[in-house]
Amino acid sequence: MTDKKLILLLKIVMIVGICLILTGVYCHMYSETVEAMGVTGIMLSACLVAVGMILSLPTKMYLTFILVKREADASTQARSN
Question: What is the pTM of this model?
Fold first, then answer.
């Protein structure tokens, strides 16, 4: 897999994670259905937020690592030329 495809995949996973976090927060704060479900509804919204964080945070860290590495390689090549 090329770097561009990997970066695109990581960005997609990060966006999906952020959407899950926002969906979980919306369900917890504004959804009457989740409120009517009681503890099960709270667990459902908490699981959405947790899965969203699992998807988004490590992806952001890895994506930042890739971009910093790419920038360092570019500056090293500029110095050698």
Answer: 0.74
